[in-house]
Amino acid sequence: MDTLILFLLTLGLAMDCFTLAITNSSVSGLVKPGIPLKTAIAFTFAHVVLAFAGFWLGGALQSMFAGQESLIAFIIFGIIGSKMIMEARRKHPKTKVFDINEAKVIVILSLATAMDAFLAGLAIGVTGLNMYLAGVMLAITVFILTLGGMAGGKQLGVDFAKRTAYFGGAFILIAAAMMLVRFL
Prior knowledge:
Blueprint: H1 2-27, H2 35-61, H3 69-90, H4 103-127, H5 131-183
């Protein structure tokens, strides 16, 4: 069950990157060659680094939450998943917001999307789940979905991106529910 929780969590986090990649490549105009790969690498790096940072902090705080670890993870995952769904309901990108072809934009977007990975890592650290397995799953899913979203964003379009955001939030909420079952 722990592996399934980690898979749903990492898939949900990667869906957030997928949504951003599709939206940006479909709204931004021409995406220069090499930018999809650079974006995928930057997003992957930021997610893995911040997830491990959260994991280490969560491990340090684990003793404070003895017996309540799964409940804490349920709350954190619930917040992340709910936030993703609420953001999907609000976003309606119709015009170019930023130029993904600029390195500073890629870095800022990487860090912004990876904040949820930090919180997820914190919950993983508190619960003692296998962060190394989560890190590998996160790296693979974020890289593939970001690269795919950047490469196919024009064809997929903003409406498809909005639906993927809902699925990402739903995957994380399912992981949250599984953590609640684990607690009970």
